[in-house]
Amino acid sequence: MSEAPETSPTASRRTLLCGAAAVLAAGGTVAVTGCSSSSSSGSSAPKGPVDLGPASAVPEGGGKVYREQKIVVTQPTAGQYKAFNARCTHAGCLVDQVKNNQIQCPCHGSRFAITDGAVQDGPAPSPLPAYTVTVEGGNLKVTPS
């Protein structure tokens, strides 16, 4: 008596590769959407003066990213504050830290100067847009320029 071999669905290598490509394409669409250019979104810049709290929160020679407000503030030298839009000019990702005198973007490695937002390492094509920053009563007030 011969038994029929047990059959179970098996995927060919081609089916697996095509499925993986489809998943990656869908994920890429989501990733690209998440890093869309700031020029396509009018909500990237605050509309008026933004109170960011104590100036003492921004270290001398470094900076602080205010993610919710999409602003990064630096203090290149004691008492000198600079503010920039925190969206990278390459793909619109938010910068995530200020380290080694540079504002750093985690998405593709762009680096910007803490003094003027100039590109120090690409692929960002242009500097971070600068904002006006003042210290009032010990608090940082930032206004888009």
Structural summary, described in words:
With 145 residues, this protein is α+β, with helices and mostly antiparallel strands. 15% of the residues lie in helices and 32% in strands. It has one helix and ten strands. It has one helix at residues 13-34, and strands at 50-54, 63-66, 71-77, 80-85, 97-99, 102-104, 111-113, 119-121, 130-136, 139-144. Strands 1-10-9-4-3-2 form a six-stranded antiparallel sheet, with no helix packed on it. A four-stranded antiparallel sheet has the order 5-6-7-8, with no helix packed on it. Mean pLDDT is 78; it is low at 4-11 and 13-43.
Quaternary structure state of the chains depicted:
single chain
Query: Rg from C-alpha positions?
Result: 23 Å
What portion of residues belong to β-strands? Answer: 25-35%
* Main β-sheet, spatial strand arrangement: 1-10-9-4-3-2
Number of strands: 10
**What is the percent of helical residues?**
10-25%
Counting helices, strands and paired strands, the structural category is alpha+beta
State the end-to-end distance. Answer: 86 Å
User: If you average the pLDDT, what whole number results?
Assistant: 78
Largest sheet: 6 strands, antiparallel
Number of helices: 1
Query: Outline, from the CA principal axes?
Result: globular
Low-confidence stretches: 4-11, 13-43
Taken in chain order, the helices and strands follow as HEEEEEEEEEE
